[in-house]
């Protein structure tokens, strides 16, 4: 075998169209039965006479067919090649192989050349191996030649191309190799020619650096090896049979022994042994030449192929391959970085462990790699974790002693996984471990029912496991995990009822109270699973369409469940009526009943018993959860579609009548007591109010007119100030339900106008009441009032009229400024607090982790309620500034809520959102000034925190500068005005008090488009004096850094609103630039927008929010003029000054008027042209004088000649070109970045060096590749 030499680079090859056949050639039999669908043959080939070998090894064919360069020809017309036949897959693979074998028998060189070209073309190579190359070149030379002719432009090859045409190519390719070896296994593969040539070729291709060659040849070699293993297995079986026949014949007595037969058997055994040795040599060559190198290939797909096939070999021919010499490769590869490869390892091992006869050969491997398999149950790839659990299940079935208790426990907890396939696999493991072993005694009583059934112990085991796992809130997950493998046990509700109601048998241990609670919870989950037929919340993507069989099973389960529990539920409720947790779970069962069975099954008396038990439970309990469950149960039973509705409705009305009458009577006495409130009376009022509130949640109690009573109660609480906390909370909630039910009736359209007026009056009175309770001393009361108030404002906002409900417009209610202020103050006081400051926790739960989590959850709900008001424009958007400024400090607790709020507000109004963001930064800046004074250290943690917050805000604007252009411009405008708002009390020579804010504002400079940077800079100069521009002290550094951030990337932008006047500098750059690429799209979008003659210049000045326009500028040196420019000369009506109040130049700190941006009449077009031409002439004269004084003549001349030679510019382009090139050093570096062809660098240099050189050219140049880990680029895992 000759391996191809190492190739040092990727290859690009030319396509030879003269020897390539179209894939669209139709392969059909023109002569019906007389033609074989082989490779280009239309007639049967006759035997070749000696010496009939033509050029290229092509012999004469029947019917005049011949071959040229490996292609069939018939009457001068080329037929399809072997590659095309296999790709189309229209012919039976065996007939294709038979035709090739027949061709091989006639002329093996030509046929073998076809096979070689088949492998080359299956790799996607367009080159063809000619007969001359085949005869005179070594394999390494052929591969090198094919590599040179490889077309790698697309990077795709048949094994990776998508589409229906190539979908089955891989399977056809693998089938062809298997059939080829199978059909040649008796003679051709032993001729020491065909197999040696093919193996040598595939070995050489598998060592190529071209991925297509390596991938295709590895797949072919592995499938060839698999076929040879099958041949070796057959030879081994034949040898064993021959040996047995020989032994049997030799053991006969001499008289009956047939010596001729013995000799034949010996000769046959010798031939088989020779063939076996030959096959083993072939397999050894493939294994050592291909597998050993490719199982650790850099490409995961190639590694996966190797591992998949070695698993087939070990399973197929275990005597030869199932040993540690081969198993070690699978064990090592289980540590592969790619999940695809790890998955192949596990599936290969599953095939081995499934056969229990092989367990003894796997003992050493299991002991060595068991820990790795157990750890893979927590693999980050869920598919790998599932297969690891299934493999452990097979290991468990093979031997109970292999896995330790710790190994099993690591799988047990996965039944609570949120990923359903992992949980189901873990549930099957749990079932095999705990439930699959039944002794003979249990089998004998398998027909017993109830408590004596064999499922009783299994149900108890499930309860014990659930309690030991200490995840009591996840019973639904446990049931769902075991539903597919243990549904018979989980749906044995008769046994569960018996365990709860019947007395234990003699010698049987009764269930404890904790176990009974767990059993009831599991029973509820099984009923829900059987009734709904979909996974619990948090596991699965939602409801799926049930099959007909599943629907029938669902109906049968609901029927059986209803028949059982309609009878058993009342006794269960009576037994556990005082236990709130048990009762809560039991009362949920009727929600899953088929209520029609109460009538059809004549179970009305059990319904009466159920209603009676519910009434007693309502009278006994005051727990909110129990009462709400009773309310939901009544709601489920009160279904007008069923005949039981009247009976249930009457019972519900009687229950509510009693409770409302009792409440009114107790309330009247309670309010008359005044200051001397009796605790017993307060408890009676509270318990009754709890029951009414719980029922009002699901039932309309409007006919009892509860608003008057609850409002009177709340009003008394405000006046006296000593109302018990829980009474106020439930009174607020009950009144809220009254309002909502009233709105529901009004929304139906059947109510009168008086009802709407009443609702409006009640709603506004209730809002005022809640606002008054915001100042209550009790935190729980304030939180309840705040939550309800946010809900009311949300419901009755302008959104209420959407969806064609214009009739509800009188109900729209908008909060006034005082209410908005109080709501915001509540959020700041009760949400943005440290965990230790939360005094709402009781019973010493401050140190309890669960209590902290619950308190945080409550605060998150409060913040979310207020943020909804901001998002839906119920309150002013600028109130969000106080929320946004907490983004960094409380990022872990509320970061997701605040970020989503910023995103939604930006979608509503980009400019107003930007104003809100800058306002939040200004508030934080003012806080720093008040805490640290005006001469604070800018390196302090507080100031650095504000800068980091600004950076985070900047990132939220995304990468599309066009979408956020106006918002970013307005943000800079407000920031500049704030920075110069407060002049220094020490005089003009000192910086403004807020000047350090420019350091924060510079974080947003990168979001400005280039032309907008120029405009913002001009606006900044309006507030600057000549002396400010010359200052270099530390106190002026924020101004210097901000100006630099605006000048970076903006000096080379010489676009103008007047076409042809000042665009020549950018024309030079555009001639140098490459065509549009992914990196340049944004920059080109900017230049396109800046070249528009009237984009912002002709915008109407009467817009509500002014936006920045690019001021016309002529050369790249305008921004470096240190001379003070008058505002009216540099500013083109973007932020207009009122003409009657010009800004004096001598007041550097003077603030432009904020309220008169829209009143200045903009310049007309002719005035703009005249102004810009005059400015251009003045700038050119001044710049020429400066260059002459600085002795730039020689440099200028050299640059001119160089540019003329490179671009062929006319003489009149000289001045703008020199201006464009003679920039500051920073400008030149930026220009180098702009004009550099990075695609050329990508070819000449490795990626890491490219990134290094780019960063040296300009440190802040953004390269997307810099965020990638270089260690993952083309690096092998080994």
UniProtKB/TrEMBL annotation:
Domain SCD: 291-376
Entry keyword set: Cell cycle, Cell division, Chromosome, Chromosome partition, Coiled coil, Nucleus
GO cellular component, one term: chromatin
Compositionally biased spans, kind Basic and acidic residues: 9-23
Biased composition (Low complexity): 1143-1155
Composition bias, Gly residues: 56-67
Function: Component of cohesin complex, a complex required for the cohesion of sister chromatids after DNA replication. The cohesin complex apparently forms a large proteinaceous ring within which sister chromatids can be trapped. At anaphase, the complex is cleaved and dissociates from chromatin, allowing sister chromatids to segregate.
Protein name (Swiss-Prot/TrEMBL): Cohesin subunit SA
Protein's organism: Paramormyrops kingsleyae
Record lineage: Eukaryota, Metazoa, Chordata, Craniata, Vertebrata
